[in-house]
Amino acid sequence: MASDAAALDAVRQQAWRLDGRDALTRLLEEVGDCSLVLLGEASHGTHEFYRLRAQLTQRLITEKGFDAVAVEADWPDALRVSRYLRGPSDDASAEEALGGFERFPRWMWRNVEVVEFVEWLKVHNQAIAARDRRVGFWGLDLYSLRASMDAVVRYLERADPEAARRARERYACFDHLAEDPQRYGYAANYGLREDCEREALQQLRELCRDGARWLSRDGSGEADERFYAEQNARVVRNAEMYYRTMFQDRNDSWNLRDTHMADTLQALQEHLRLERGRTPRIVVWAHNSHLGDARATDTGEHGQLNLGQLMRERHGSSAFLVGFTTHDGHVAAASDWDGPLERKAVRPSLPGSIERLLHDSALGDFVLPLRGREPLGQALAEPLLERAIGVIYRPETELLSHYFKARVPAQFDALLHIDRTRAVRPLDPSALWHHSTEPETYPSGL
């Protein structure tokens, strides 16, 4: 096992300090010709993570011709943003387009940082005449059971009214419980009611089977709408399974969700490939826990897989995985699920963690390239603690609630470490939210 001194020395030798554009330029050179760049975050509420992802994504789009942004968000909510970006849309601004994100945690996408990025994408797309060449914003997640059912029916009402009638009958199986899918999952799992797996699967199969017929009848202009409807039907089918497995083995529900995200990303790749006549290049935004290869973590050893692992298995070195870390600062998070948003202090990282090691390097903010760096890989080969803050942060039980072990060089292709971070700026702060007077930090203070 390498000593802490050897690990610190290796980090100091390999790191690129974030004191200008040079470090990000070198990171883009590391990306090379990769068609998938997965950009993580160590929390769902950190300003610097959102801003750095936005800066990297802007450069991937303008300098490397990336075609789409896929995010850890529900398909219908993100599709509304994509319509705003690619047209046509009834929304007059990015903030309006983000209005579909109504459920907890609203701040994850309804924040100033995302508004600024979406408005940049809008301006970028306005210079592209062909709608099918504009950059879209797509959701990979599966929580939108009710919204996706409604979207399938709306599409069919226009494409095939008789098929819409059949879809309404099938989806009626969920009854009023679609508004509260966790109640549905509980009732179906414990035998309090029949599940709706058969109905959801039948609807998906019919939609996929008949889609080609509707497309040939209505012309190529219907390709996008057909694809959107099919994806919503997949969400319904997989969400039904997900909410039932929530009350079984935790690994089963986690694996189902990340497999759904991987399959959605693959479907998006195929749709864009047909649309553009070449292999598309896509940027993915999601939490480190989804994007860092699960095989390099103790959660993976206990049976969990994730999106990053699946992308490496399916695409090999064409997938480039970037993790984000921080030592301390502030974060936007809740104390409990569905709880009010708070601006919480992030405790200094624990000894024995990758975050503390990177902090102890005294380099401040930097990029740490990992792919192909054998000496660094050897120095960091042993598992270290790694922090993961989601939409809930409980500092009083931080070790138990927010840390796991990982072999970082096998988990990511690069790390971005921001030593002290601050919270995102929510569009809808709660009564418990207290605005900060912290000064701007990199990269927004350039």
Outline the structure in words:
- With 446 residues, the protein is α/β, with parallel strands linked by helices.
- It folds into two domains: 4-142 and 258-421, EreA-like (biosynthetic domain) (EreA/ChaN-like  fold), CATH 3.40.1660.10; 143-257.
- It has 19 helices and eleven strands.
- Strands 1, 2, 3, 4, 5, 6, 7, 8 and 11 form a nine-stranded mixed β-sheet that branches. A two-stranded antiparallel ribbon has the order 9-10.
- Helix 7 (145-159) packs antiparallel against helix 8.
- The model is unreliable at 216-220 and 439-446 (pLDDT under 50).
| End-to-end C-alpha gap | 39 Å
CATH class of the largest domain: Alpha Beta
Backbone CA Rg? 22 Å
Helices and strands: which structural class?
alpha/beta
The coarse overall form would be globular
The CATH superfamily of the largest domain is known as EreA-like (biosynthetic domain)
Task: Report the uncertain regions.
Answer: 216-220, 439-446
Number of strands: 11
Number of helices: 19
Brief account:
With 446 residues, the protein is an alpha/beta fold.
In terms of topology, how is this protein built?
Elements: H1 4-14, E1 16-17, H2 22-31, E2 36-39, H3 47-64, E3 68-74, H4 75-86, H5 94-97, H6 112-126, E4 136-141, H7 145-159, H8 161-171, H9 181-189, H10 197-218, H11 223-245, H12 250-276, E5 282-285, H13 288-291, H14 298-301, H15 307-315, E6 319-333, E7 342-346, H16 354-360, E8 366-369, H17 374-379, E9 384-387, H18 398-402, E10 403-406, H19 408-411, E11 414-421
Parallel strand pairs: 2-5, 2-6, 3-4, 3-5, 6-11
Antiparallel strand pairs: 1-8, 6-7, 8-11, 9-10
Helix pairs in contact: 3-6, 4-6, 7-8, 7-11, 8-10, 9-11, 10-11, 11-12
